[in-house]
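quick one
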Amino acid sequence: MAMILDGKRLAEEVRGEVRRDIEALARGGVAPGLAVVLVGDDPASAIYVRHKGRACAEVGIRTFDHRLPASTSEAALLRLVAELCADDAVDGILVQLPLPRAIEATRVIASIDPRKDVDGFHPENLGLLVAGAPRFVPCTPAGIMRLVASSGARLEGAEAVVVGRSNLVGKPVAALLLAANATVTIAHSRTQNLAATIARAEIVVVGVGRAGLVRGEWIREGAVVIDVGINRTERGLVGDVEFAAAARRAGAITPVPGGVGPMTIAMLCANTARAARLRRG
Ligand code: GUN
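structure w/ guanine:
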């Protein structure tokens, strides 16, 4: 039976580290501030944003909430982002995704000051990550790497398979695994034989958003399995991996909920403290 990688506990540990860092910043008169922008009324996004606000308050980060209606124009959102870029009290800017369809997310992300881009999604920050000199590592990938480290798995020379190629998760996590000297394969919806690809993997990261996409019997004995999926089904929240069957083969596995999710939020706190340090530390 696999070791269950407890993201809730590990996230608490990370928030403790961040709280101590913020206390040190406070002694120098620096109070990190995070602007959180939520456009529209996607219920899942509203829940994430609430959790982010709570975690920030707990570690001593001030948050500035901006709730805009779904009808907001791209020009209006770009104006708000420009104001937040110019606001000295704002160290980090987070625009919750997805945005309403009428707004081009890539233009909004590119308009964020890269030194305030605590999501790490700005092309400059993604470029620095790929170049091996990260400024802000995107929160979910950073949390995943911390979970993998907590499993004790050796990454050097290991076969790692990332399922999903999003800019938010798949691509950055592949860059981080590569930087840790893993042999990295990125699988996606056009991959011919997903079962055979996953069967090779000593580390598997799945972030697609399809309940039960990865079958338990595909998992290599002893593999570390990181499930980024959050799918609402009639059985409640489930990941992209068939948990019970995978846990019988894996060496370590993240649960859903309580695995990657809490780590994403803890890493956002860490990135915001880092942004404050970079700008004013
Ligand atoms: N939507 C889902 N995950 C994220 C994230 O990490 N950051 C932002 N801004 N939006 C998201």
